[in-house]
Amino acid sequence: MTKKNSAKDFLGSLNDALMCKNSNSFWKSWRPKFCGKQTAQVTDRYCDEKDTADRFAGVFQAAYVLNSERRHKDAKRRQPAK
After folding, report:
1. Is 46 helix (H, G, I), strand (E, B) or coil?
2. Which of 22, 34, 42, 73 is the most buried (most CB within 10 A)?
3. Taking Cα atoms as reference points, which of 60, 49, 42, 47 lies closest to residue 23?
4. Does the pLDDT value for residue 29 go beyond 80?
5. What does the alpha-carbon distance between residue 71 and residue 61 come to, in Å, rounded to a whole number?
6. Which pTM does this prediction carry?
């Protein structure tokens, strides 16, 4: 697997976890890539892993800008059921 494909797969798994608000899956993808033996105790005032993952999801969601109502509806329709 090339480095480019590996990075694409990694970003895809992070994106999927965030879109589905699956904090366990998010951290399973995140930790091997960025965490060594020691992890941060506090991130943006959050200590709990779930709270931190929810904060990341909120930040990424806030960065989303709707640029096409039709595409937005298509994307919503393709999302897995919650």
Report:
1. strand
2. 22
3. 49
4. no
5. 16
6. 0.34
Tokens standing for residue 27: 């951290």
Tell me which amino acid residue 3 is.
K
Q: Residue range 30-40: average pLDDT?
A: 67
Sequence-ordered alpha helix ranges (H) in 1-82: 3-19, 23-34, 49-63, 69-78
In degrees, rounded to 5, the angle at the alpha carbon of residue 11 between the alpha carbons of residues 21 and 48 is 40
Identity of the amino acid at 51: D
Locate 46 and state its tokens: 């959050």
Asked if pLDDT for residue 66 goes beyond 70, the answer is yes
Residue 39 pLDDT greater than 60, yes or no: no
For the chain, give every domain's residue range.
3-36+46-78
63/54 Cα distance (integer angstroms):
14
